[in-house]
Amino acid sequence: MIMTIVMEMGLIHPPVGLNIFVIKNIAPDIPLRDVIWGVVPFVVLMVIAVVILCISPEIATWLPDLVMGK
């Protein structure tokens, strides 16, 4: 879970930010600065999610534990 969230963070914010450039090509009339600032809340939420998962990993493992048993 953590690796997936962190990899997605890498795709939506600079310097790599592939998703930002895709959005920029879809809507060329919107300045790149506005697109980047639009991504900031999502990056902040992802950082918070990673911190919560690191503090309490049971959040990510309760469903597999429920299905497969401990």
Key terms:
70 residues, mainly alpha
How would you state the average pLDDT, rounded? 89
- The 3D shape can be described as elongated
Question: H/E series, N to C?
Answer: HHHH
Computed Rg: 16 Å
Instruction: Specify the helix fraction band.
Output: over 70%
Please state roughly what percent of the residues sit in beta strands, choosing from under 5%, 5-15%, 15-25%, 25-35%, 35-45% or over 45%: under 5%
Q: How many DSSP H or I helices?
A: 4
Please describe the biggest sheet, giving its number of strands, its sense, and whether it closes into a barrel: none
> Based on DSSP secondary structure assignment, what is the total number of beta strands?
0
Poorly predicted runs are none
> How far apart lie the N and C ends?
19 Å
Structural class: mainly alpha
Describe the structure in your own words.
- 79% of the residues lie in helices and 0% in strands.
- The chain has four helices and no strands.
- Helix 2 (18-26) packs antiparallel against helix 3.
- It is elongated, with a radius of gyration of 16 Å.
- The mean pLDDT is 89.
